[in-house]
Design a protein that fits this description.
Layout: H1 2-5, E1 10-14, E2 17-18, H2 25-40, E3 48-51, H3 53-61, H4 70-85, E4 88-89, E5 95-96, E6 98-104, E7 115-118, H5 124-132, H6 135-152, H7 166-177, H8 188-206, H9 214-228, H10 232-241, E8 249-255, E9 266-271, E10 283-288, H11 294-297, E11 303-304, H12 305-311, H13 313-330, E12 334-341, E13 344-352, H14 357-369, H15 375-381, E14 394-395, H16 397-405, E15 409-412, E16 414-417, E17 420-426, H17 429-437, E18 442-446, H18 454-459, E19 462-465, H19 473-481, E20 484-487, E21 492-495, E22 500-503, E23 509-511, E24 515-519, E25 524-527, E26 532-533, H20 536-543, H21 552-567, E27 571-575, H22 579-587, E28 593-597, H23 607-616, H24 620-645, E29 649-653, H25 667-677, H26 681-691, H27 703-708, H28 710-729, E30 735-740, H29 746-767, E31 774-779, H30 782-786, H31 788-791, E32 797-800, H32 802-810, H33 821-826, H34 843-857, E33 862-865, H35 873-881, E34 886-889, H36 894-917
Parallel strand pairs: 4-5, 17-18, 18-19, 19-20, 27-28, 27-34, 28-29, 29-30, 30-31, 31-32, 32-33, 33-34
Antiparallel strand pairs: 1-2, 1-3, 3-8, 6-7, 6-8, 9-10, 9-12, 10-11, 12-13, 14-26, 15-25, 16-20, 17-24, 21-22, 22-23, 24-25
The structure holds adenosine-5'-diphosphate and magnesium ion (2 copies).
Amino acid sequence: MASSKSSKFVYFFGGKKADGKADMKALLGGKGANLAEMVNIGIPVPAGFTISTDVCTYYYKSKNTYPKELKKQVTEALARVEKVMGAKFGDKNNPLLLSIRSGARASMPGMMDTILNLGLNDVTVEGVIKKTNNPRFAYDSYRRFVQMYGDVVLGLKPVDKKDHDPFEVLLEKKKADRKVQFDTELTAEDLKELVAEFKAEIKAKTGKNFPSNPEEQLWGAVGAVFGSWMNDRAIIYRKLNGIPESWGTAVNVQSMVFGNMGMDSGTGVAFTRDAASGENIFYGEYLFNAQGEDVVAGIRTPLPISDLKKDNPRIYKELDGYRKTLEKHYTDMMDVEFTIQQGKLWMLQCRVGKRTGLAAVKIALDMVEEKLISKEEALLRIEPNQLNQLLRPVFDNKEKQKAIADGKLLAKGLNAGPGAASGKVALSAEDAYKMAEKGDKVILVRIETSPEDIKGMNASEGILTARGGMTSHAALVARQMGKVCVAGCGKLLIDYHAGTIKVEGKDIVVKEGEYISIDGTTGEVIVGKINTKPSEVVEVLINKTLDPKKSKVYRQYASLMKWADEYRRLGIRTNADQPDQALNAVAFGAEGIGLCRTEHMFFGGDRILSVRKMIVSDTVEERKAALSEILPYQREDFYGIFKAMKGRPVTIRTLDPPLHEFLPHQEKEIKELASALNISVEKVKAKIESLHEFNPMLGFRGCRLGVMYPEITEMQARAIFEAAAKAMKEGIKVKPEIMVPLVSDVKELKLQKDIIDAQAKAVMAEKKVKIHYMVGTMIELPRAALVADEIATLAEFFSFGTNDLTQTTFGLSRDDAGMFLPKYVEREILPNDPFEALDQNGVGKLVEIGVQKGRSTRKDLKIGICGEHGGEPSSVEFCHRAGLNYVSCSPFRVPIARLAAARAVVAERAAAKKSKKK
Ligand code: ADP
Ligand code: MG
Ligand code: MG
């Protein structure tokens, strides 16, 4: 398949011209495409070539083999690289060394391994020495190569969480033997010995000799990169980020440049703006005389980029120039890697930088002001779920200050991921995952993190590391996941074996499982638990404890929401059962209630007793008597909600759950009920028994209750209209929309609507008011969607109940799906959990049918959605395309839904423009 598409598998870059460019990410991966782009815009990049993702696809389809054309194309490209760089691969006098870098379409930071200095062996190393007159450098490069190759290609890794990296053990031993602290202090001779020791270790552990032939090394490394596409951490990363397995990775083969050639050399990483706050400042870190991952791995603590300005103003100026060129060219905040080899600057990577939600909002707003991007573009730049970070809690400052005053401040690290988190200490990712599974809030504490830790990081509230800077693995991943993170907290002494954290010069010991609190905004690490408090946005909008003028974060949030509202067509409502919830949602921008579940009101105070009395009744009269006790409560509840909503529409659903859910199940409670109702325990038990269902989800529930017991609907309708009349008398506008659940046939709706209309008429006559109301239905059964045209003859509105519609379409119960559904997602049988993101392909079709059929009967039928999906961005976009009038979601998701709805419009316009051009 792949080979028929195109027979070009290898794309050269270097000098002044590249075969590829930025928009070829699908074929060249992100890294390869951007390396090509940098070459094309005149930025110095070491020459190399990219082996395309088609080869990866081929590799997995063809039992780990390559297309036959590949070898020749690689040889040709390599010859071009040799020409540009003026060195020859495998040459004993003037050897070209290579780096082998993976690079998928979407960036997967640290997910797959890079091999540096490839091409070294006992012969070529002499060539390097001759060329550089620097034996120490040559052997340092050599030992790194053997180490990386041994790890990545030959599989010499630590076996479990307490095991150490076999190469690190040897390196540490060498340093101890030589009585030195840093690897930079080891001599050429020491390093040469290490190379031999590393090779011996490889031989001992694998039984194989280290390959000395450069060609063999190259193909071994290429195979390892393709192989790493299917390693556990790559698979987990793809799962977490929704990257399809079919994309594959590309392999970049690039000439080496060396940051470890002495003090006029170095390596670094930078963001063109601050990735945590979004501030427009150059943000980065670098190390002198270092190579590759030294900066990220936190071997030595890196220097801030501002130091480079003092240390080497010429290089700094050049780098800062590329910063500006890149931002202008890509019109986005970029993340770059660079290396300085003996005073010459080389750019090794650029990509759009990951950022916190806070930074995403600030950068997008700033870039509109700087005229780099349009408002539409700004809306597309912010992932709706990133807004969670603006709504996220911070520590209660008084409590934190008290803890600090009490001497509980352990240490201070870097403020790598904003927000506040408190939880139990886990010292390995595995433990973090297990503890979180049990329901604990966890803070993962590590000396440093690595890609293996992803799953545990994802399960934790926050991440704390002893080593590494703002661009360390922990910091990058935490920001992307939206986790709180304090990195590089160098004072922490973490002992994995003892399971303790200590601090230099303090006699505090924190054990695994004990509470710790981290402030990702200030970098503080505090012993014990500290309560968190709402974000500034929440303080301004909900608690009204902060003056909006005093909160920059709030003002940015507000501008963004204003733009979103200018674009979106979808209305946004909320699911709320109580006045306080409704008010929160209105503060977040909700325009009405899309779902008020009446049954939640049945449990409060003494009401449950009346409800139970109603259920155990034998006659209609008894039942009506019990219902009349409930009526005043319901009326007050509805009145409260109408009052809070001030004339905004309120959709109230009539009773939905099976009656069984309201009955007691414990002996003691059953006895209490019997005596309260003055009936026998046996009778209560018999009633409970008679209401037992094998499958309550598909049983006696929804409108079926109101059909069998019309008096229940009657009472609820009366309570709604009486509440409406009361509010209207006080000058409050009301817009009740009464919604009948679980309808599968129009006749069910007819029976319920007749009752509701009759009550409306009666109450209006009694109270002498005219109430405008609507009666509609939920569409939550496949049959309802299929006969929506008939249902719409009576229904004045539809609301898709996508939780039940998903259950009934898939024929699975959400409560019982835990056994297999996560595995389905893991194995890509389903792209994601259909209860989280609407299954557009299946359930979505029923939604489309329902919309089309409903409107074929009633042209301007108002249609919404009130399932959990109403606040999930991809589902919101679907609802827009399906032509719904509104989505309804939980209060804290309202801002997310507003942004998602606006993005749907922007995306739609962009698509229309594109098709017009064609
Ligand atoms: P990742 O995808 O994990 O970022 P990279 O392919 O960027 O992996 O490689 C990791 C590091 O290795 C880079 O940040 C850079 O420091 C170093 N490196 C990669 N290629 C080269 C090269 N051609 N010359 C010098 N250093 C390199
Ligand atoms: Mg990189
Ligand atoms: Mg339902």
